[in-house]
Design a protein that fits this description.
Layout lengths: L2 H9 L4 H4 L50 H28 L5 H27 L12 H5 L6 H29 L3 H28 L6 H7 L17 H7 L3 H8 L3
Helix pairs in contact: 1-3, 3-4, 3-6, 4-7, 6-7, 7-9
The protein binds fe (ii) ion (2 copies).
The site of one fe (ii) ion has 5 residues, from α7.
Length: 263
């Protein structure tokens, strides 16, 4: 199966199974001989239960002290599952939006899709174990609102890998601790899996930032210059800054220090 076919199937799937689709044989069954023309931006299809909700329908994210209450755990996991769903979709969208991107960029992106599908499944299953269904609560479209401006692979990497996912290097361990304090070891374990994978995803961003970076600019300058107006560097970090995770991702020391000093 061609990557563009896979991406189209995922993006326009109207079932959760469709969002999790991979051809039999997985990555080894995929080819990229016909990336096609750049596709104009369009919003994803969704199962009805996961349609983007209006702002006044949204539920409040639980207080960190309340993750031991299963209803609050469901709320938190539901929010995280929605982030994974948007990540899957935005990665599929990128395969369609950037047919001319280097082949290793497109291949790497496809590996990230598989990871994000796995993350989505982990959350969906955990929500079910706690007695609810993904789609029971309203979902927002935060990542999607940024998409129309991501006109180049570099801007995409800066938004997705180096802002949303970089922020998760701080958020995931924090929420792991919240679940642990609440006695929910299983949800804590999932947060740790996500954290380890996210280091690789930020690493993908770090490698392509370096690839696209003009020689006269630092990596941090290139990052800031390619952020679209919905994003700013502060969104790429949490309260508890994890410099070591960023080093493991391959971000350079100057970039890490610049991130740490953004408030
Ligand atoms: Fe993820
Ligand atoms: Fe990720």
């Amino acid at each position: 199966m061609e990557l563009s076919t896979l991406a189209t199937r995922i993006l326009f799937a109207d079932t959760l199974e469709g969002k999790l689709f991979l051809p039999p044989g997985g990555l080894s069954a995929l080819t990229d001989r016909l990336p096609g023309e750049a596709r104009a931006w369009s919003a994803p299809s969704r199962p009805q239960a996961l349609a983007i909700a209006s702002r006044n329908q949204r539920v409040k994210f639980p207080h960190p002290d309340n993750f031991g209450d299963p209803q609050m755990a469901i709320r938190a996991l539901h929010t995280f599952a929605n982030h994974e769903l948007m990540a899957v979709e935005l990665m599929a969208w990128a395969l369609l939006a950037y047919p001319d991107a280097p082949a290793p960029f497109r291949a790497g992106l496809t590996r990230l899709i598989v990871d994000e599908q796995r993350h989505l499944s982990l959350y969906v299953d955990r929500i079910a174990e706690l007695g609810a269904t993904f789609g029971d609560l309203p979902v927002n479209d935060h990542f999607w609102r940024c998409a129309p401006e991501l006109s180049t692979p570099l801007k995409w990497v800066c938004a997705m890998n180096l802002t949303f996912e970089q922020g998760n290097l701080d958020h995931a361990p924090f929420f792991e601790e919240c679940f642990q304090k609440g006695g929910d070891e299983e949800s804590a374990r999932i947060m740790n899996i996500i954290y380890e994978d996210e280091i690789h995803h930020v690493g993908f961003g770090a490698r392509w930032l370096e690839y696209f970076r003009p020689e006269h600019q630092s990596s941090f300058e290139t990052y800031v210059q390619n952020l679209t107006f919905h994003n700013e560097p502060t969104r790429g970090r949490g309260e508890h800054f994890d410099a070591n995770a960023r080093r493991r991702a391959g971000l350079d020391q100057d970039f890490i220090e610049a991130m740490e000093s953004t408030t």
